[in-house]
Amino acid sequence: MLEIKDLHVRVEGRDILKGIDLTIDPGQVHAIMGPNGAGKSTLSNILSGREGYEVVKGSVLYKGQDLLALEPDERAAAGIFLAFQYPVEIPGVGAMTFLKTALNAIRTRRGEGELDAMQFLKFVREKARALNIDDEMLKRAVNVGFSGGEKKRFEILQMAVLEPDFTILDEIDSGLDIDALRIVAEGVNALRTPQRAMLVITHYQRLLDYITPDFVHVLADGRIVRSGGKELALELEEKGYGEFIKGRAA
Amino acid sequence: MGAQQSRQQQLLAGWSLADAAALQQKLPGSEHDALLQVRKRALAAVTGRPWPDRKSEYWRYTSLQALSSGRYRPVEAGEGPMVQEALLADSWRLVVVNGRLRRDLSTLPREKGIDILSLSDLAGAAPEDAAALLGDWPEQFDDGFFAAFNAAFAADGLLVTLADGCRAERPLEVVFLSSGDGAVIFPRLHVRLGRGSALRLIERHEGAGRYWSDGVASFDLDGNARLEHVRVLCDDEDAVNIATAALHIGADACYDGFLLSLGGMMTHQQYKADLLGEGGECRLNGAYLGHGRQHHDCISDITHDVPATRSHQVFKGVLDDRAHGVFQGRIVVRPGAQQTDGHQLNKTLLLSDRAEIDTKPELEIYADDVKCSHGATAGELDKDALFYLRSRGLADGQARALLINAFIADALNEIGDEDLRDALNALVARALNRQRAGGE
């Protein structure tokens, strides 16, 4: 589904990613772990199409097409979804309006036709209930006045509504207490199917207790320095990142 | 010296004082001496003195060069109508063509307590009253230059009166239609609300051609009266709309106004409000959209004369291309006007590097127990918000439109009446669509 080859990325003149190779097949969940500044967010941003990142070398293929040539909205239509580490507040745009506009934009591009107001309401209410999101929250403007937990749950609601094929979760666990984390993880797990794939980016092992990955990769200083199964996360938890960074520097 | 000399002889480029005096003689009502004398006094007030320029407080950011040197003449009679659809289906409707009320195109209110008079009606029935109405031009701005200019040549005008306790059921829509290349048009609107009366008023300005509308309006609210007033400027893109409005707000009365500036090559709108009775409230909000080389200048000057009065202003604008916006807001709290609550906010979204906003808040406070605030921001579309929307599948144009609409909606939400708000929302959405279509 996703094939990253020798990816080098520069941000404001600094080399951040220095040769990433990663292949993700349908049905798989990959976790990327690493210390601050390793390039985790750069990787999620480059995959979702944020401006300001210069690809120096390498390629990314998504379902066989050149992902880096697509606009952010084209990527969304192709089934890519980024759950933001810091969801953006948009004053004046109601959460429901936003969800409906996004869903219908994507449905239209896929040639599926728009949902009418009633169909949409029913569709969203069911998904929202599962995430413990009440109607009151959806009456507010997008992310405005949301608590940290509400913002993350709203990200997962968007994911549930848009039903992406490939999801990137960028530090979805940051700022969540254990109850919120459980709700978010359940929401994510509900979307796991043999056809869908996910990339889970996190600093802490804790998240992976709830979202079990098939593969774990350690990202340090712009490179994947080690890959393994889910047990690698536990090893990291025990030893910390120091060893990996040291090992690379030596 | 040559220019000054010619200014003495000519009121408008190529139009002499003798021409002006001759026109005054022909205006409706001038056969009554009282009216003619007021017109002469108004003419005297604008002759022999320079036009306001950038050294004048309220013309600092707006040039009058195109008007003072261009060929403009007062129009003598109304031209053919271009009647627009009513904004609200159930409204009473007054259509004013080139400054003159056209009863044949109007649907006059048939509600008890609402009285509509044109200045020419009044001139026939009570010339002294007509003279008083014409002669009471607001002098607060630029010594009343453009208000006096209007008084000198206005052929007609409207006087809307609501009796004490009359709460108009239907909104009143006044449509000012203007036309003619180089025509100067002098709309006049006077609204008097008796004690405890209420009115929803829509004032629309539309037209075709390179005209110049020089308007005067006054709104007098007696105790407990309530006026919701939206003023919508959709003038021709070659037209100029200059206007001065005077508001007198009595005890526990509420003026709830909204200025929507969409059309026109240049608009310059001055509001002078006086809060004269305790418990009085002045809400003056607005939105301006500019593209091409449009220029929108909004000026407010609100005086809290007595204790326990409130004022509230939110003006938001979206400027594209080389459009220029101006917001000058002044709040004066007179000595003794304690418990004044005065707030003012101006925010502008600049969609192009060459768009420009000048914003100048001014607070003059001579009492110590008051709550007053002002704020101003100008900026581009939030890039993070734009990316967030696009990452959810919205195309660039769609994402921008959503953000721009949300930005302006914030101001439009200040309109309390749902029907009016919906109508203005629709106008704004259409204008933004046009702007986008034109820009691409």
Offer a quick outline of the entry.
The complex is a heterodimer of chains A (250) and B (440). Chain A is α/β, with parallel strands linked by helices and 250 residues long.
What do these coordinates show?
- The complex is a heterodimer of chains A (250) and B (440).
- By secondary structure, chain A is an alpha/beta fold.
- Helix content of chain A is 39%, strand content 28%.
- In chain A, the strands form 3 sheets. Chain A has a 6-stranded mixed sheet, with helices on both faces.
- In chain A, a hairpin with a 2-residue loop joins strand 11 (215-220) and strand 12 (223-228).
- In chain A, helix 6 runs parallel beside helix 7.
- Chain A is globular and about 55 Å long.
- By secondary structure, chain B is α/β, with parallel strands linked by helices.
- Chain B has a domain at 3-277.
- Helices cover 25% and strands 39% of the residues of chain B.
- Chain B has 10 helices and 23 strands.
- In chain B, strands 3, 6, 7, 9, 10, 12, 14, 16, 18, 20 and 22 form an 11-stranded mixed sheet that branches. A 10-stranded mixed sheet of chain B has the order 5-4-8-11-13-15-17-19-21-23, with helices on one face. Chain B has a two-stranded antiparallel ribbon with strand order 1-2.
- In chain B, a hairpin with a 2-residue loop joins strand 4 (92-97) and strand 5.
- Chain B is globular and about 70 Å long.
- The termini of chain B are far apart.
- Mean pLDDT of chain B is 92; it is low at 1-5.
- The chains are: A alpha/beta (250), B alpha/beta (440).
- The A-B interface holds A 48-51, 71-73, 75-77, 81-82, 84, 87-93, 98, 101-103, 105-106, 109, 141, 158, 162 and B 382-385, 387-396, 398-399, 402-403, 405-407, 409-410.
